[in-house]
Structures are given as structure tokens and as C-alpha cells.
Write a structure and sequence with these properties.
By secondary structure, the protein is mainly beta. It has one domain. Helix content is about 5%, strand content about 35%. The two termini are about 30 Å apart. The structure holds zinc ion (ZN). Zinc ion binds next to loops.
């Protein structure tokens, strides 16, 4: 099953190993700057807020709101063609960071339409297992 996954697969690196390990366990983890207290995404050793090297990992609540979205009808590459139409989005995590993701399990079923989504709507993280080691965080309306 997992060997049939044809889309590009994230490659964990030193700075993101924990992120992917936790995602596989169904948890969303973020890096936080210990100097100014801001959480940030994507995970990296030096904070983007004040370039501090004093950072730590925190477990996110998994709650977010919809910041913006686009419904993709024509896949950017062939590997995504059978998913179209699908919803790409930027969500604002409860801890503050913005995160690019997909919106899934949209109420009403059928194809996604703008009427089924609204800016500011409440979302929660769900994970799609794609390989033996990778699960992708996506968000669904609550
Ligand atoms: Zn900072």
C-alpha cells in the first residue's frame, strides 16, 4: 500500500525529525523561541522571530482557524490529479504560527466548494498516514 504512494514525500532532516516522529504518533509539535516565547512553523533550530538559537519543542493543541484557502481543480503535477478538486490552505494555529496544509473531511460531502468553507472557521488537525514513517498533518472543520 505505502509503496504505491506516488506523490512527493517529505524527507525528515535533523531539524524536523521530531516533528515527523510526533506526526506519525498523531501529534502536532512546533518549535518555540525561548527568548521571546513565540511558537513558529516550520521547525528549524534558529527562530525566525529574533534569530535565537535557544528554542524548544512544544506540543500544539491541534486547533486552528482558516486563514485563507484555494480549491485546486487542476493538479500542479500528475501525481495529484486523482485528488482534484482538493483544498489547499493556510491555517492559523492556536499557538500563533501560520501553516500551509490541506482541508479535508469538509461537511456536506461531495466536492469542496467555497460555500462549504469560511475564513475564520474552526479547524482541528488530522493525520494522513502515507508511508511507514510519514503522516501528513491536515485540518478538518469542527
Ligand atoms: Zn524570538
Amino acid at each position: 500500500m505505502t509503496t504505491q504512494y506516488k506523490k512527493p514525500i517529505p524527507v525528515p532532516q535533523g531539524e524536523s525529525d521530531v516533528y515527523w516522529q510526533k506526526a506519525k504518533q498523531g501529534e502536532l509539535w512546533l518549535r518555540k523561541c525561548d527568548d521571546c516565547g513565540k511558537a513558529y512553523f516550520y521547525p528549524r533550530d534558529i527562530s525566525p522571530c529574533c534569530f535565537s538559537k535557544k528554542t524548544s519543542w512544544i506540543k500544539a493543541s491541534g486547533k486552528a482557524t482558516l486563514h485563507t484557502f484555494a480549491i485546486v481543480h487542476r493538479a500542479p503535477i500528475a501525481a495529484f490529479a486523482e485528488d482534484a478538486p482538493f483544498v489547499t490552505a493556510i491555517v492559523e494555529l492556536e499557538e500563533g504560527p501560520m501553516m500551509p496544509t490541506h482541508i479535508v473531511e469538509i461537511s456536506g460531502g461531495g466536492e469542496p466548494t467555497p460555500e462549504k468553507l469560511s475564513i475564520g472557521m474552526s479547524l482541528e488537525v488530522v493525520f494522513e498516514d502515507i508511508t511507514d514513517t510519514i503522516a501528513l498533518p491536515k485540518f478538518k472543520p469542527v
